[in-house]
Amino acid sequence: MDQTEPNKFKGGYFLAILFLFLGLVAFLSFINIEKLMYEKANLTQLVESLEKNELKELVVRGQEAKWERKDGKKFVTIIPPDSSIVDRAVNNKIAVTIQEPSNDGLWLAIILNGLLPVLLIVGLFYFFAKQVQIGAGKGFNFGKARTRLVSGGSKRVTFRDVAGVDEAKEELQEIIEFLKDPKKFSRLGGRIPKGVLLVGPPGTGKTLLAKAIAGEANVPFFSISGSDFVEMFVGVGASRVRDLFQQAKRAAPCIIFIDEIDAVGRHRGAGLGGGHDEREQTLNQLLVEMDGFESNEGVILIAATNRPDVLDPALLRPGRFDRRVVVPRPDFRGRLEILKVHAARVPLSSDVDLEIIAKGTPGFCGADLEILVNEAALRAARLNKISVDASDFEYAKDKVLMGAERKSLLLSEKEKRLTAYHEAGHALVAKRLPNADPVHKLTIVPRGMALGLVQQLPAGDRYTYTKDYWLDQLAVLFGGRVAEEIIFGEITTGASSDIERATEIARKMVTEWGMSDKLGPINLSTKKEHVFLGKELASPRDFSEKLQEEVDHEVSLILKAQYRRAYEIISSERETLIRLAEAVLEKETLDSLEIDQIVGVSNHQNA
Question: Which residues are within 8 A (CB) of 211 and not within 5 positions of it... i.e. 6 or more apart?
Answer without folding.
Answer: 150, 157
